[in-house]
């Protein structure tokens, strides 16, 4: 029988400074309960509740060494409280009753909810509550005040409304089977608060957040761990907080390969190399640029997932095939998961060496895959809408690779190595969420303890291995993750259903995880599941959205290529895909800037306009890079209401100028995505291409929206060019700081700006060289004489 008890330390016994680790430790009347405060830097504080001694989490890397430590930390005491100060932030620790708060100047930023009681004295939420079973701490709960207008953001790829106030959030990774519930593939124990701080819980365990749901005056955090170890990160700018979080948990060091920003085409599944050829030929016939082909599990033998051995009946001479695909301009993304079927030849090898998770008896734990067996059909391209999927058996049981065992990890990677050596472009890292609670790892921990971090170990091992052994940039496409997953780009949103509601929920997931430091994110155009449903309007609207995220891919359990949805959908898809390819210089430059600045590629409005109370709750619009505002249509309507934040915004299609901080009814027929450009933008573009090539561009098109002084840094693998535009006294000056390329300038609203003189690199452009279009665009082709 479990001996369970609860402790709630409320009376401070003493305070002790440990100068060796710049830590101040609070002791309570319960002799074995402690609370420590440690300044990591001027504006980051590590706060830890623990029993007996503090044990730091070993599987989530925290890079405190990247910060300059605070100096001159002082501790003072008066009758009611202790104060710890570094001259920038103060921590007040009250004695009786105990509670603490973090103060900046005269304002409380974070305060425990000591007084959150009803009219007869009953407490709505408990603070510093320890739950102990058999003398072992199993959970710790704390609560903090929240103002009536405070908002909460982040928590990972959560598909609920972006402001999480009023929600109960569970941080526990699941195979979510869609995007219409509170379950998520990627939970990250980090959130932003509108008072200008972030909270990172350093744990791999399940967390429950009640965000002003038990009481409107407080929020609670309960960690199912033996410690409550968290980092308070002060901004107050959200961008600063996210950057500090990224440094603390590991920065994304690698910009994905340039070709990865082209179109991806996947299906469950492209069954044979002949089928793949049919698909690439059709893309060429339809004049649709394409760069990446995703190959689902059918590259391996049915029932043998994941043995890493090509089924040469379906893919003859795979090494030659991979090479020929690259020569034709296509990179391959190969699907894997972290389990080995009992039918695979390598299963017994892994089992005998102890490389799989164990059950309570020490035997290999056998996991039942949810994937169906391959349907019996001779077709080269599978279409599960024509299969009675319920009659298909499931794939065989499998062993789960133990990534806490270094030998098991090395063995798994050795099986994968030849794919990388042969030149596959990316590894598609599926699954990794639903680790059974009753499994046991080589480190002595259970699946319950390791569930959330398993996917981080799995994806990190593969990404770092790719980075080590190949000369080109590594690339993985990851479904699940935890703290620090931003180090391993890119990820996608799992398997959404085919509905407008889920389309919007999917975007909310992308915007929420963007606020957790994840830079590159993607999803399946049109949705993955709901067999037999083909809605051309939904597909078209989803495609428009998808062309304006960092990575764009067609994928589904049934044919999801654009020609499958009729002529109109195909025409509109082609229009937006060609626009995306023309924007690759802008997209790749933004990708480089995002990595250098630790900012997400797609940004919720609240990130760029933090002080705008309307932007604070908007999750159906976003910023693409820094210049575009994208407002997708999420229903069958031919209009929507669009909120434009501060500044002037130009309709990308009509060049009409809109004033910001206003809402507009915007007419949006099916072929029109509401798309706006921030006034002052300089957008580098390129001419039409069919594939993204690894070479410098000879010509750049600069799409310019003049206002005052503006600039843009163009970044390529070969060039960095600073562009500048200054509009003053009816003179427009454009500086390219480069004469190695040819340029075409497109100056929007030329006459509306009353431009009398155009100068390029300090030279006046002759009026005869300026062509004005009907929509008031000046087009100038530059040559060496200008």
Could you give a quick summary of the protein structure above?
The protein is of the alpha+beta class and 786 residues long. It contains eleven helices and 49 strands.
Record the strand order, biggest sheet. 2-3-4-5-19-16-15-13
Main beta sheet strand tally, sense and closure: 8 strands, antiparallel
Report the strand count.
Answer: 49
Alpha-carbon distance between the two ends = 87 Å
Q: Helix amount, in percent?
A: 10-25%
What does the overall shape look like? globular
The radius of gyration computed from the alpha-carbon positions, rounded to a whole number of angstroms, is: 28 Å
Task: Classify the secondary structure makeup into a structural class.
Answer: alpha+beta
Q: Are there runs of 5+ residues with pLDDT below 50, and where?
A: none
* Overall pLDDT score: 95
Number of helices, where a helix is a run of at least 4 consecutive DSSP H or I residues: 11
Proportion of residues in extended strands = 25-35%
Task: Describe it.
By secondary structure, the chain is an alpha+beta fold. Helices cover 18% and strands 30% of the residues. An eight-stranded antiparallel β-sheet has the order 2-3-4-5-19-16-15-13. Strand 21 (292-295), helix 3 and strand 22 (331-336) form a beta-alpha-beta unit. Helix 5 (406-422) packs parallel to helix 6 (447-469) and helix 8 (536-546) runs parallel beside helix 9. The chain is globular and about 85 Å long.
What labels describe this entry?
alpha+beta; 30% strand; 49 strands; 11 helices; globular; 786 residues; single chain; 18% helix; seven-stranded parallel sheet; eight-stranded antiparallel sheet
């Amino acid at each position: 029988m479990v001996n369970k008890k609860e402790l709630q330390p409320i009376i401070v016994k003493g305070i002790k400074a440990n100068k060796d680790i710049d830590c101040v430790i609070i002791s309570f009347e319960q002799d074995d309960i402690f609370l420590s405060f440690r300044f990591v830097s001027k504006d980051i504080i590590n706060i830890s509740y623990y029993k007996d001694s503090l044990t730091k989490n070993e599987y989530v890397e925290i890079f405190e060494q990247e910060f300059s430590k605070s100096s001159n930390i002082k501790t003072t005491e008066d009758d009611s409280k202790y104060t710890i100060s570094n001259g920038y932030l103060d921590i007040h620790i009250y004695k009786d009753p105990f509670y603490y708060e973090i103060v900046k100047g005269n304002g409380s930023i974070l305060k425990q909810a000591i007084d959150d009681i009803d009219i007869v004295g009953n407490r709505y939420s408990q603070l510093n509550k320890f739950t102990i079973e058999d003398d072992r701490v199993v959970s710790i709960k704390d609560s903090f005040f929240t103002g009536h207008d405070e908002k909460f953001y982040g928590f990972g790829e959560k598909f609920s409304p972006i402001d999480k106030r009023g929600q109960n959030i569970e941080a526990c990774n699941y195979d979510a089977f869609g995007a219409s519930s509170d379950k998520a593939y990627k939970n990250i124990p980090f959130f932003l608060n509108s008072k200008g701080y972030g909270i990172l819980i350093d744990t791999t365990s399940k967390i429950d957040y009640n965000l002003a749901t038990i009481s409107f005056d407080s929020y609670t955090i309960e960690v199912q761990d033996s410690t409550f170890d968290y980092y308070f990160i002060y901004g107050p700018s959200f961008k600063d907080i996210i950057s500090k979080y990224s440094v603390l948990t590991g920065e994304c060091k690698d910009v994905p390969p340039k070709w990865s920003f082209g179109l991806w085409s996947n299906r469950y599944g492209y069954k044979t190399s002949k089928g793949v050829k049919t698909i690439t030929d059709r893309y060429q016939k339809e004049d649709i640029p394409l760069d990446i082909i995703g190959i689902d599990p059918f590259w391996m033998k049915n029932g043998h997932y994941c043995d890493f051995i090509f089924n040469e009946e379906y893919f003859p001479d795979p090494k030659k095939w991979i090479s020929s695909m690259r020569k034709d301009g296509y990179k391959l993304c190969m699907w894997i998961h972290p389990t080995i079927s009992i039918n695979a030849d390598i299963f017994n090898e892994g089992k005998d060496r102890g490389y799989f998770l164990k059950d309570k008896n020490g035997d290999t734990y056998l996991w039942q895959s949810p994937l169906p067996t391959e349907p019996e059909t001779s077709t080269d391209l599978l279409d599960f809408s024509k299969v009675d999927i319920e009659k298909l058996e499931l794939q065989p049981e499998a062993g789960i690779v133990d990534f806490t065992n270094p030998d098991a990890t090395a063995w798994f990677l050795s099986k994968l190595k030849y794919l990388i050596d042969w030149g596959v472009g990316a590894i598609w890292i599926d699954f990794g969420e639903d680790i059974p609670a009753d499994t046991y790892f080589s480190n002595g921990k259970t699946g319950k303890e390791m569930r959330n971090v398993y996917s981080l170990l799995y994806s990190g091992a593969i990404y770092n291995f790719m980075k080590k052994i190949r000369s080109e940039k590594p690339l993985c496409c990851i479904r699940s993750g935890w703290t620090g997953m931003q180090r391993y780009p890119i990820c996608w949103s799992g398997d959404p259903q085919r509905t407008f509601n889920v389309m919007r929920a999917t975007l909310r997931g992308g915007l929420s995880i963007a606020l957790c430091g994840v830079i590159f994110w993607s999803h399946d155009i049109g949705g993955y599941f709901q067999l037999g449903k083909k809605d051309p309007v939904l597909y078209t609207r989803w495609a428009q959205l998808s062309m304006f995220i960092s990575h764009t891919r067609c994928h589904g359990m049934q044919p999801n290529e654009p020609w499958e949805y009729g002529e109109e959908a195909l025409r509109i898809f082609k229009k937006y895909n060609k626009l995306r390819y023309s924007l690759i210089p802008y997209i790749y430059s933004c990708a480089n800037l995002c990595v250098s600045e630790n900012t997400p590629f797609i940004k919720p409005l609240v990130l760029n306009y933090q002080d705008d109370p309307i932007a604070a709750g908007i999750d159906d619009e976003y910023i693409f890079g820094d210049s575009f505002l994208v407002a997708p249509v999420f229903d069958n309507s031919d209009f929507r209401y669009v909120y434009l934040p501060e500044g002037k915004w130009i309709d990308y299609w009509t060049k009409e100028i809109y004033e910001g901080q206003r809402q507009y009814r915007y007419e949006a027929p099916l072929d029109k995505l509401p798309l706006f450009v921030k006034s002052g933008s300089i957008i580098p573009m390129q001419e039409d291409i069919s594939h993204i090539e690894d070479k410098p561009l000879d010509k750049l098109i600069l799409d310019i929206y003049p206002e005052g002084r503006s600039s843009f840094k163009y970044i390529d693998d070969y060039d960095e060019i600073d562009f500048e535009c200054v509009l003053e006294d009816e003179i427009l000056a454009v500086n390219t700081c480069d004469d190695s390329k040819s340029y075409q300038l497109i100056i929007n609203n030329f006459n509306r700006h009353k431009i009398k003189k155009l100068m390029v690199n300090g030279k006046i452009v002759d009026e005869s060289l300026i062509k004005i279009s009907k929509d008031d665009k000046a087009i100038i082709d530059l040559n060496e004489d200008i």
